[in-house]
Amino acid sequence: MARVNQKRRNRFNRRIERLEDRQLLAADAFKIVQIPDTQSLAESSPATFSEQFQWVANNAVSDNIVFLSHVGDVVENSESDQEWQVATAALDLLDGDLTANPDGLVPYSVAIGNHDYDDDNTHNGASQFTRYFGESRYEGRSWYGGSSTDELNQFQIFSGGDQTFLHLTLEWEPRDSALSWAQDILDAYADLPAIITTHAYIDETGGHSTQQLTADGNTGVEVFQQLVSPNPQVFMVLGGHFGSERHQVSTNSAGSEVIEVLANYQNRAIGEDGFLRLIEFEPAVDVVNFTTYSPSLDQFE
Q1: What are phi and psi of 237, to 5 degrees?
Q2: Average pLDDT over residues 246-256
Q3: For 201-236, what is each residue's pLDDT tens digit?
Q4: For residues 129 and 187, what is the distance between their CA atoms, to the nearest angstrom?
Q5: Confidence of residue 28 (pLDDT cuts 50, 70, 90)
Q6: If you ran DSSP here, which 8-state letter would residue 282 be given?
Q7: Is the pLDDT of residue 2 over 60?
Q8: How does pLDDT run across 270-297, given as a tens digit for each residue?
Q9: Integer Cα distance of 182 and 190 in angstroms
């Protein structure tokens, strides 16, 4: 069952009212950052890992960055405390001084990828992930909604322009229980447009993934059929895992478009590049722009 209660919903309503009171214009452009798989960075290029998040922290205000989504495979070796410490130190840069500002600098989410489980490529254990990126990490953040019982699926609420958004973070190859939890959250916040991040969704061909490495998980095809398509409020899905860049627009059961994006640059010279994906919304002209940028190289593609 979804861990949603009236007290938490009231708190979100107050948060939404405060955001609306800021009187942000619909014409104001804003950005979401999509962080591709960082496993190689955690293992061999911690400086590049850090540079990605330092750039986001430094430019959060000037670029109006309203949310960051990490698509999973945070580390290469889940048993390595050092790699997890590299990762959490980088994410800490988005928090800033939490004593002065309990919400941090930028709301964010971190999905669990196949390399982040205690036993790679299975759903067997997630002690390291939940230790560093479980529910306790987000204590006191007004934008953090809560998690499934196992803490592998989480949700956030953030604002961009004059719109409030729901974001769902789902485990790699989501199990039926994860999809049921996600449906509960979508039902609870049916008035909010929603974005989903899950580690493996569309593959190198640009189609919904049919890969299934777990006995109890759902493929990208099944996630689309069971969760994305039946819920018209879901307008975007972000993923990684497959070593490529792809984009497609699917049509859901209501006939609306769903933007689906794969970003994973780990097959490049990751130690030097550190590319990330910038998603810029321009509400005034009804456009979403996707660009690729490396803070380490200070270079756009």
Answers
A1: -130, 130
A2: 97
A3: 999 999 999 999 999 999 999 999 999 999 999 999
A4: 27
A5: confident
A6: E
A7: no
A8: 545 899 999 999 999 999 999 999 999 9
A9: 12
Residue 277 backbone dihedrals phi, psi, to 5 degrees: -110, 130
Count of CB atoms situated within 10 Å of the CB of 228: 25
What's the full length of the chain, in residues? 301
- In what helix (H) or strand (E) does residue 145 lie, and over which residues does it extend? strand 144-147
- Please give the backbone phi and psi of residue 129, each rounded to the nearest 5 degrees, phi first: -60, -50
CB-CB neighbours of 47 under 10 Å? 13
Residue type at 19? L
Query: At residue 117, what is the residue type?
Result: Y
Query: How many CA atoms within 13 Å lie on the side-chain side of 76?
Result: 14
Tokens 């953040």: give the residue: 141
Alpha helices in 22-126 (DSSP H): 39-44, 46-59, 81-92
Does residue 16 carry a pLDDT above 70? no
Question: Do residues 256 and 214 lie in contact, with contact meaning Cβ atoms separated by under 8 Å?
Answer: no
Mean pLDDT of the chain: 92
Position 291: which residue type? T
Cα distance between the two ends of the chain = 43
Euclidean distance between CA atoms 189 and 167, whole angstroms: 10
